[in-house]
Amino acid sequence: MTTRTSWWGKRSLWQRFVLLLVVLGIAAAVYFFLNRGAAPQPSIFRIASSGEGEATLVVEGNDPQWSPDGNSVLLTGDDEEGVEGIHLLEFDGGEPTFITTGGNPSWSADGATIAFSLEDEGGVSGVYTIDAAGGEPVFLVDGDEPVFSPDGSMIAFSGQDQGGNPGVYTYEVATEAVTLLAPGNEPAWAPDGSNIVYVNENTEGDSEIQIFDIASGEVTFVTGGDDPTWSPDGTIIAFSGENTAEEPVIMTVTPGSTPTEVTGGEEPSWSPDGSEFAFVRLAE
User: Fold this and answer.
1) Which of 194, 105, 180, 104 lies closest to 149, judged by CA?
2) pLDDT at residue 116, as a whole number
3) Is the pTM of this model over 0.90?
4) For domain 41-283, which architecture applies?
5) Would you state the torsion angle of the CA atoms of residues 53, 57, 58, 62, taken in this order, to the nearest 10 degrees?
């Protein structure tokens, strides 16, 4: 009687090993394909500025900027080709509306104009403005992270000197004059225009939140953190920090006091009445 050898048995140990790797590779590819939508995505939430209650998911995106009238929020997100764009979402429903290519959007106080940054083909970031209703962007100056002053006469932004050192600058809209204020980035105006809160690195490379007084030029240390922004009444700074587990959290601080944790997330933006935050958190 003839004994038949199985297909698997005819293979050498090396061939069996290679075939096993191929099968495992195919299985892994199928798994990741079926679960590709499960990865957490940066998304915008709302929560009471006191931290009370549950956070409400709004939409996928980054860098929320609450509109001056409180009815909408600017946000950034990538299109299908990975190009970053600025969008407007009305809180009363509907899908985000595309405004322009770019990032780091900021409203003018009257809600009529949006300042933002956009890199050119050479990778150099520039500050632009665009009408909130749409239109063509207008280039102002090389820089990043622009924010309008409360009266609209100036734009604070992050820039670099010829040595590549980061600094907080102002651009005067009427004269186009550019002035260096202090080393750092991530500027945000006080509601009365008297100072700018921003981020600077200390000698150990850690981020510090500082305040630059416009009249005197005096710099005041506040606390460690990123993404600082003043409350509408100018008394509290919200910012991105870390808890003891080194997880990102939204925090608030009155200069001279101890910061308070609000909720998990980062990139806080106050509502015009100060009652809520829009912020970013990973969502399934």
Assistant:
1) 194
2) 98
3) no
4) 6 Propeller (2.120)
5) 110
